[in-house]
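We modelled the chain as a single entity of 255 amino acids. Its sequence is:
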Amino acid sequence: MDRIRRARAHDHSDERPGPGRPRRCRTGGPGGTIALDGSVKQYLPALAAKHPDVANVTIDQLLRMQSGIPDSANVPVTGTPIEQLITDRVVTPLGLSKTVLPAPESTAAPQPQSRGYVTDAQEIEAFGGVVPLGTDVTDWNSWGQAGGGMWSTLQELGTFAASDAGNTLLPKKLAANRLKTKDIGDHTRYGQGIIRFGPWVGHEGEALGYETWALHNTKTGVVYVASANACCGTQALAALAPLIALYPKDGKYFL
């Protein structure tokens, strides 16, 4: 099966979470845990000094898309490379043999692979970029690394979706806290790195040339995975069209 690219997430809100939510989560760093109510200043003092406007943003706010930071960035926290953490904590426990986040210096794509194209340039143009429609952007595969450089197959994305986006790998209290969602607009209820649409939970993935959804219906057990080798803008809804056609009563959660 052709490999497809997992996606990137964007912060959509500057709202702050209410009290009582933070927990601690395990990391690869000294001490083994970080506090979800800990701040950027606490864990990344050099970054906070360079960008004081994010100094008091908490880990919980980052995970919930409520930090006010308009985009994603990769910064070291644990001292362990992010690709190793993902392999050790997610890929290996779920038995995903064809899913990988390459090292930052790697630009080679696994084969076979689906090719990606730009069919809607509105998001690119919003940032001042110019990419002709129809441009093959397959080789732009190192974009964002953890934010957009991960590869997988539809089958293994289904396995990931069935785990509630990795929730089954977490302690019960942390998993439950992760599913406490808040409306951040555009029919989107966001938890800690997870989206809820009624009974469906999971996440969207978007990178140049690719649009992916991996969702799990927590009531029925149904898993929905779709990937379009095109982006951006309207492709997100287009990739959900088959799900809405199959389950029209759930359309209200997406539209």
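As a brief sanity check on the tokenised model: The two ends are 31 Å apart (CA to CA). The helical segments are 40-43, 45-50, 59-63, 82-91, 122-126, 154-162, 172-178, 235-246.
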